[in-house]
Automatic annotation (TrEMBL):
<dbReference type="InterPro" id="IPR006860">
    <property type="entry name" value="FecR"/>
</dbReference>
<feature type="signal peptide">
    <location>
        <begin position="1"/>
        <end position="20"/>
    </location>
</feature>
<keyword id="KW-0732">Signal</keyword>
<protein>
    <recommendedName>
        <fullName>FecR protein domain-containing protein</fullName>
    </recommendedName>
</protein>
<feature type="domain" description="FecR protein">
    <location>
        <begin position="57"/>
        <end position="158"/>
    </location>
</feature>
<dbReference type="Pfam" id="PF04773">
    <property type="entry name" value="FecR"/>
</dbReference>
């Protein structure tokens, strides 16, 4: 028996290590600096598309960086720039379709669309500096700003249990879908999303129990304006466009569409640093069954040669989250970004792009576009 103890101890350690290092999901988009740190040994790795993330990982995004992860149960986690997320637990049994998940947002912001775990009644929680969020629905967003926590529920509902055990409920069948919780525990509920979610605040409930709307909460607005000035965050799209794509009806519209739709440029406005632009073409394939943009291309000519960019990404409800996978200008390698949103009941896609040569960034091109099926 004495000789069996080291063997048993070793097996237990291996079992624990294997369980802790079980896959939690896959990286489906990694733009910029996206790092994963193994909590068991502090080893660091740069995440790229299709890389596995594990139940021991702490994930960090840098300046002008973002990431998206498809989790084991089909859930989605989109991590914003300058964020730190700890995957404390993510377990899912594909045979029983049961599991539990607990993640912790330490810095920055995330958007999450919950998967089968929550749909089948499992435990799914998101820890924040002010309390723990229990999920009653599918689509929500969290942003940390200077110690405060901003919440937005786009579909479904959440319950945030504060450190004093008070519960803040938001979303479906609740009076409010948006809130700010200060570092000291004050609750400000709103009828519109804060500007950290690319919208204006137009109503506020300072005490958490008053449903009367008031125009423009000045204290909150000043704090958010300061955040935007510090980080350089700017609205890409007009408020009217954002309202169109963030409405609850869009969720239903996406769910109703089936198959792959191919969009092409119907109008555009493009400028290049090296001359007039000709022969512009842009395509985008949108797979509504899987919620992805499997491929897209941009091509046009200027005095320096042909610009070409290939991109792919994910339907992220408020936007199409896209990443350029290859770009070139003539014989020179290039890089860039593409941003886009749905309009007119998914019948149009509008957005903009920026491209530049890697070794000579002064050679660049940018433009806006509208795509139709």
């Amino acid at each position: 028996m004495k000789h069996l103890l080291p063997v048993i101890t070793t097996l237990l350690c291996v079992s624990f290590y294997t369980q802790a290092n079980d896959p939690a999901g896959k990286t489906i988009l990694a733009r910029g600096s996206v790092l994963a740190v193994d909590g068991s040994n502090e080893q660091q790795r740069q995440l790229q598309r299709r890389d596995t993330v594990f139940g021991v990982d702490r994930i960090t995004t840098g300046e002008k960086s973002k990431a998206q992860f498809s989790m084991l149960d089909g859930g989605l986690i989109a991590l914003k720039e300058n964020s730190v997320l700890n995957i404390a637990n993510y377990e899912f049994n594909d045979n029983t379709q049961q599991g539990s998940a607990s993640i912790e947002l330490l810095k920055g912001g995330l958007r999450s669309i919950s998967g089968v775990i929550k749909k089948n009644g499992g435990s799914y929680s998101v820890k924040t500096p002010v309390g723990s969020i229990g999920i009653r629905g599918t689509h929500f967003e969290v942003q940390l700003v200077k110690g405060d926590v901003f919440l937005a529920v786009w579909d479904g509902a959440i319950d945030l249990t504060l450190e004093n055990n008070n519960v803040v409920s938001l979303g479906d069948n609740e009076a409010f879908s948006f809130a700010q919780i200060t570092a000291t525990g004050e609750v400000f509920k709103t009828t519109r999303a804060a500007r950290v979610f690319d919208q204006n605040i137009v109503a506020i409930d300072p005490k958490g129990d008053n449903e009367e709307e008031t125009e423009q909460a000045s204290i909150t607005e000043v704090e958010v304006n300061a955040f935007e000035a510090d980080t350089g965050v700017m609205d890409i799209y007009s408020e009217q466009q954002f309202q169109t794509v963030s409405s609850a009806s869009l969720v239903d519209q996406i769910a109703q569409r089936q198959g792959v739709f191919n969009y092409e440029a119907s109008s555009f406005n493009v400028n290049s640093s090296v001359g007039a632009v000709t022969d512009f073409a842009m395509t985008m394939a949108v797979d509504f069954d899987n919620g992805t943009v499997p491929d897209g291309e941009i091509s046009f000519n200027d005095a320096g040669g042909n610009w070409y960019a290939a991109y792919s990404g994910l339907i992220n409800l408020s936007e199409l989250d896209l990443a350029v996978t290859f770009a070139s200008h003539g014989n020179n390698k290039a890089e860039g970004d593409v941003d886009a949103i749905f309009l007119n009941d998914l019948d149009n896609i509008t957005g903009n792009f920026n491209l530049n040569e890697i070794n000579n960034p002064d050679v660049n091109a940018s433009g806006s576009f509208k795509l139709e099926p």
